[in-house]
Amino acid sequence: MIKIDIKYLAKELNLAISTVSRALRDSHEISAETKEKVFALAKRLNYQPNANASGLRGQKTKMIAVVIPEMVNDFFSLVISGIEKVTQAQGYHILLYFTHGDHALEVSFINTLANGRVDGVLLSITDEHNDNSHLELLNKKGIPLVLFDRVSERMDNVKVTTDNYDSGILATRHLIDMGCKKIGYLKIHKNIPVGTIRMNGYLDALKKHSAQKVPLVLECPSGNDEAFESIRRMLVAEKPDGIFASVEKLAVICYRVCEQIRLHIPQDIRIISFSNLHTASLLNPSLTTITQPAFEIGETAAKALLRIIQKKGGYNAGGNVVLQSRLIKRNSTAR
Amino acid sequence: MIKIDIKYLAKELNLAISTVSRALRDSHEISAETKEKVFALAKRLNYQPNANASGLRGQKTKMIAVVIPEMVNDFFSLVISGIEKVTQAQGYHILLYFTHGDHALEVSFINTLANGRVDGVLLSITDEHNDNSHLELLNKKGIPLVLFDRVSERMDNVKVTTDNYDSGILATRHLIDMGCKKIGYLKIHKNIPVGTIRMNGYLDALKKHSAQKVPLVLECPSGNDEAFESIRRMLVAEKPDGIFASVEKLAVICYRVCEQIRLHIPQDIRIISFSNLHTASLLNPSLTTITQPAFEIGETAAKALLRIIQKKGGYNAGGNVVLQSRLIKRNSTAR
DNA sequence: CTGTTAGCGCTTTCAT
DNA sequence: ATGAAAGCGCTAACAG
Asked: Which listed site, A253, B38, B75, B203, has its alpha carbon 20 to 30 Å from A300?
């Protein structure tokens, strides 16, 4: 199996290696007819430049790394699709890494990436409160880094995020506008940051736009069955007419509870939930979801990264971007 | 910003470049104390070998390409997770490509990959009936290729698939075992191969295991609303007591129809559906889904590929693998 | 317009 | 046990 490299093309055409190289890159200092010949042969033999060689030589690889916590999650699937759209358009390749929530793994990936394997890194931080000297290393090595969704306030890099506080307001206002007088918030267990930030939106929206004096926050336990029970008790005792679920899973559980205690949605109670997948809205077409613009986050982050890579405009060219969540109201019969 | 390469380490330690290289690779012909010193400095300076250089030199990159139709699809997310599990364990990197159903794009990706960018390729073919000379090219260039899920019978490479015929039997038998006497099959529109193969399983299962003489196949139109209407008419006219949906979307629509015409699931009608996401089963916890072993497909394909890469045991070492779908019965209150 | 040549960082003979 | 040097395929600076 002969290998088709520049040298081979050059020999076939009786040209110097550099001439072929220049022709292939469409240099203006090569005659039209030479280019013709080179292109023709290259196409005929299906010549493909060796990525390692040009990478080594030119110190750029046309590859970016995407580092995310995990994939089995609609949000990140959509983000990746957004990223892919822009990288593909500009001829970049995607290297994909999952940290599985393991900060040490993230450190190890970043270290590996810190030596010319990629032209830039897109990262959604695994543990926002942990040390991030590994990220400083990237900066020090001059490898562009853009953070998205899960970011670190202590880093100076471009960040692309969703305004979770605003989203909390948006969701709560929706319920208020629909006429809900007593709105409960299902807070995700543990200290998951978005749970709290979204809650603040909920609290402030109540204060400003509703007559409801007392917020109704249920801190849901982590087990599904425990959460079910806990939500059931709350619904029975408090009889809210609106529920804002901080994450989709809680909305699904809440829906089940409603089924069991024979509450009708949306006649007796309205539910709004964060969701990327619209799973929750599949449960009931009249259920409204609030959706992070996942695809756009991917696009935006990728565009920012490529801009930095190409213009080398410093590691913070373009500044941060905060995107807004959207309400999705579903009324159609099917998905 | 100084760069930390082998040369730098060598200079610092007053050693030859080759000695450092050997030490880093833990060669047996290097004294223990030299190794110590080299390791220590490498760690202290966070030395990372340049991937392009070693790739160029050694003709292997420790990268594999994963080429799939798209990502916004739970099946492929899970497959990728499976792939990642095994590549990560063996220190391989994943390059990710989406063909978006465009055969020309697939050809272009494969061509790019055909020159040393990766050590191997995992592919789910975009258009199973199209020409695949681009894949022959990979074989000719000696780049290992493993096909999964959407494969081409005309290729000799290792293939990892699910037995869709068997799955059709499994699903149909489930309904029969649950006591259904009249089972309908919701066939996906167009000539999507799985729709037909699963249907054959349905037909044969009826023949062998059911008293039902006449199969009830509904070829569903592609629009959601059209499918809804078409399913509604069928349910009303035929009154089946079991439905086997070839894909999840049809199950969801069918569920809506049942709601509208006040059929109770599973009292009046049982539904079983293909699904990776369990969205359908969220609709009703008593709904049973049949699931492709997506994660295992990823794992299996990746393992096969790495085996070929490492042992160079020819392009078909290990042979094909056909995995079985699984029934998932859900009874819990929540997800 | 085209050819010659020097590396990019690393691995691997071949010497010592 | 260590060093010197060649070369992976490509690009670009320097000659003509």
From this structure: B75
Task: Give per-residue pLDDT as tens, B204-229.
Answer: 999 999 999 999 999 999 888 899 99
Domains by residue range for chain B, with CATH: 1-48 (1.10.260.40), 164-292+327-333 (3.40.50.2300)
Q: Which residue has the higher pLDDT, B75 or A122?
A: A122
Element (H, E) at A327: strand A326-328
Residue-level length of chain A: 335
Question: Residue B287 in contact with residue B274, Cβ under 8 Å?
Answer: no
Cα A52 from chain centroid (whole Å)? 29
Compute the mean pLDDT over every residue in chain A, rounded to the nearest whole number: 88
Beta bridge partners of B153: none
Query: Each residue of B7-29: b (16+ CB within 10 Å) or e?
Result: ebbbeebebeeebbbbbbeeeee
Q: How far is CA A175 from CA A47, A316, B261, in A?
A: 60, 38, 29
d(C-alpha B60, C-alpha B117), whole Å: 8
Q: Is the pLDDT of residue A237 over 70?
A: yes
Query: What would the 3-class secondary structure string for B241-262 be?
Result: CEEEECCHHHHHHHHHHHHHCC
Of A276, A283, A268, A275, nearest in space to B256 by CA: A283
B151 contacts: CB under 8 Å, gap ≥ 6: B124, B125, B128, B159, B161
* Residues in B 16-55 with any Cβ partner in A closer than 8 A: 46, 48-53, 55
Q: Which nucleotide across the nucleic acid strands is nearest to A52, CA versus C1'? A: D9
Among A96, A135, A312, the residue to mutate for chain B (most B Cβ within 10 A): A96
| DSSP per-residue string spanning B302-320 | HHHHHHHHHH---TTTT--
- Reported as a single tens digit per residue, the pLDDT across B231-273 is 999 999 999 999 999 988 888 888 888 878 888 877 889 999 8
What phi and psi values does residue A243 have, to the nearest 5 degrees? -130, 130
- Which positions in strand D are less than 7 Å from the protein's CB atoms? 1-5, 7-13
The pLDDT value given to residue A334: 36
Query: Distance (Å, rounded) from C-alpha B152 to C-alpha B149?
Result: 10
Contacts of B193 (CB under 8 A, 6+ apart): B128
Nearest C-alpha neighbor of B76 from the set B51, B55, B98: B98
CA distance B177 to B155: 38
User: How far A107 CA lies from chain B's nearest CA (Å)?
Assistant: 12
If residue B23 lies in a helix (H) or strand (E), which one and from where to where?
A: helix B17-24
Cα atoms found within 13 Å of the Cα of residue B5, Cβ hemisphere only? 14
Evaluate if the CB of A63 falls below 7 Å from strand D: no
